[in-house]
Design brief:
GO terms for molecular function: hydrolase activity, acting on ester bonds. Helices cover 45% and strands 14% of the residues. The protein is of the alpha/beta class. A five-stranded parallel sheet has the order 2-1-5-9-10, with helices on both faces. The protein has a three-stranded antiparallel sheet with strand order 7-6-8, with no helix packed on it. The chain has a two-stranded antiparallel sheet with strand order 3-4. A hairpin with a 2-residue loop joins β3 and β4.
Amino acid sequence: MKLQTQVSLKKAKKQIDYQSRLLLLGSCFVENIGAKLEYFKFRTMQNPFGILFHPKAIEKLISKVIKGEVYSVDDIFHQNERWHCFDAHSDLSDPSKENLLLNLNNALAQTKEQLSVATHVLITLGTAWVYRHKESDTIVANCHKVPQKSFYKELLSVTEIAESLRRTIDLIQAEDPKIQCVFTISPVRHLKDGFVENQRSKAHLIAAMHEVLEDSKLEAEISYFESYELVMDELRDYRFYKNDLVHPNDLAVEYIWEKFSSVWISENAKNTMASVEEIRKGLQHRPFYPESEQHRKFVESLERKMEKVRQNHPFIDFTV
């Protein structure tokens, strides 16, 4: 008896290992995968500008990084006692305009540095709905609670999304044609837009993504991971969502991570991952008798395990 449909996944050709350098950009779902990669001590940079929900915001960030542009006071604004930038998430907002500009430009520089050594760029697309600021006639990454009347709400067409994705890929490939771009569609449901509107949005993203993947003129290493399809077609149940019934819960994230690992993480890396997990669990251990001989031996054994991992991967730091 078959009680579940299965999404067919193919092993990736250019898998991730502990020599890989990863840049992760996009919606909040990319942070779920990023948290797993960080837990296992892979070398990653995750959303330096905070969560970016739509392809235009990701394209603008990559464009500014590649072109070496910087932010000035003309690019920020004051609202509700804080300074904000329409290109960044509110996590970067600050009471001081000097601090905001410093953080924005540091994030650009750090992204540039990571991209210069990156082997993989993982991008998760969350929505095709965007907000256009009326005064500046520009699409923003975040509205920062500026009154709704200051924006037009627009649904990006399949063509607009596909063109934006191609420009983003071209910019990344210009930095290094060997970089592997991995795209996913976020399974997070943007129900604030409306049920039908959310479905239209995801449909536009999926159609555009596959149009780009099938573009024979695009000479780039690009792949697609079926995170959206795994939630919609394999899990298919509200017990895999958080209480808000919008975001996948820990069990769903763990399930998708296992699927991601099965196709994108190399077998050699999995041995190190097992060691890293054992060490991390050991570091969380709280002894009943810290002065006991048994605990002393436990600590010495843990130190030997950490040293063995560091011999092969000197960059792994268990203190953070």
